[in-house]
């Protein structure tokens, strides 16, 4: 099975696993992007063994760790962000993916997401969803492993 995540035009990582039940038989973790991301992949490859359930998650909130955490949680079938509809901010027609990419890129407050994407800059009713999304990317997903 194969999963991939990335920031458009910046970083891309993929994981190709062969499993026997939940036991990892072969793992191919690769990516393109910055040195920090490539170093993280080198650090994580030896950890891809044993039960998939037990593979540790990166705990930092830099963009490389956020991408790898999302990838591993997808592989573990535990990636369940609170907001999954295609468009998050209806006033400004901002896609959820654009908000997610802003969070991964370092916008970790609703205000910084607004500045980067224009989400929540009209009626503001989407702001709680932006906040929940930020919280999930930064905290909740770490605990679900
Ligand atoms: S729905 Fe986002 S500002 Fe109104």
What report would you give on this structure?
By secondary structure, the chain is of the alpha+beta class. It folds into two domains: 2-62, no CATH class; 87-143, Arc Repressor Mutant, subunit A (Orthogonal Bundle), CATH 1.10.10. It is 39% helix and 23% strand. The chain is built from five helices and six strands. A hairpin with a 3-residue loop joins β1 and β2 (11-20). The chain is elongated, with a radius of gyration of 16 Å. The two termini are 19 Å apart. It binds FE2/S2 (inorganic) cluster. FE2/S2 (inorganic) cluster (FES) binds at residues 89-92, 119-126.
Order of helices and strands: EEEHEHEEHHH
Low-confidence stretches: none
**Bound compounds:** FE2/S2 (inorganic) cluster
Share of residues in strands: 15-25%
* Rg from Cα: 16 Å
Summarize the model shown.
The protein is an alpha+beta fold. Helices cover 39% and strands 23% of the residues.
Topology at a glance:
Blueprint lengths: L1 E6 L3 E10 L2 E10 L2 H10 L5 E2 L11 H13 L11 E3 L4 E2 H9 L5 H8 L9 H17 L2
Antiparallel strand pairs: 1-2, 2-3, 3-4, 5-6
The site of FE2/S2 (inorganic) cluster (FES) has 12 residues, from loops.
């Amino acid at each position: 099975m194969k999963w991939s995540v990335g920031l458009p035009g910046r970083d891309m990582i993929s994981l190709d696993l062969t499993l026997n039940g939940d036991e990892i038989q072969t793992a191919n973790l690769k990516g393109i992007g910055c040195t920090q991301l490539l170093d993280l992949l080198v650090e994580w490859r030896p950890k891809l063994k044993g039960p998939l359930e037990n593979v540790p998650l990166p705990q930092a909130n830099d963009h490389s760790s956020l991408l790898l955490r999302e990838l591993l949680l997808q592989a573990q079938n535990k990636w369940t962000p609170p907001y999954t509809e295609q468009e998050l901010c209806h006033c400004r027609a901002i896609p959820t993916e654009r908000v997610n990419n802003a969070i991964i890129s370092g916008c970790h407050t609703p205000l910084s997401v607004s500045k980067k994407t224009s989400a929540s800059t009209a009626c503001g009713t989407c702001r709680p969803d932006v906040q929940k999304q930020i919280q999930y990317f930064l905290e909740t997903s770490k605990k679900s492993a």
